[in-house]
Amino acid sequence: MSSELTTATLVGDFVAGNPGTARVLEAHGLDYCCGGQRPLAEAAAESGLDADAILAELTAVAPTTDELDVTTLTNTELCDHLVQVHHEYLWREMPRLTELANKVARVHGANHPELREVQKTWQALVTDLTEHLMTEEQEQFPAIKAAEADGSTFTTEGVDQLLREHDVAGELLAKLRELTGGYTTPADGCGSYRALYAGLEEAERDLHTHIHKENNILFPRLR
What we know:
8 helices; 70% helix
């Protein structure tokens, strides 16, 4: 990565420049999606971490050659990418994980009462995401693409609401991670239990990347 990166660099910019750095930030519990518009120094200090040490780890991550550099996409291309990659993933996975969450809570809820809260929290996230994705696909993304096509000014009022919804999603994801003990399946967990936690963790990872691309790449351009 570039030697120009410092502890004053925005957290989200590390991931925008090299997606591989997301793993470093996740390992330290640093939010690069909803909290991506903060300098590394500020984010590290809030978590009681050494910003210089984390910077050294981030700059040591070799750039990946097979990752799509979304910063090179036009706004229209980026909107299409978000729908084709991340929205389609969620439309496919949300029903599957909902069914798993219901099943596991029903079978194991007596011994693991936290599963009822996992089920409830996941359903709240699905409800919010369903409306959010539809708003993006039917309203905001078409407006962004139209503005780019005719060179008009895009009104960012709707983006402010999307950002607030991202914050809610981030809070629900954090709650799921806490409830599941970092997605750790207990010793008496069955195959469905393991599949649920693996699926929820994958959904968390994809949503972090998804929100990062919007909060730290697409939306700042529109402002």
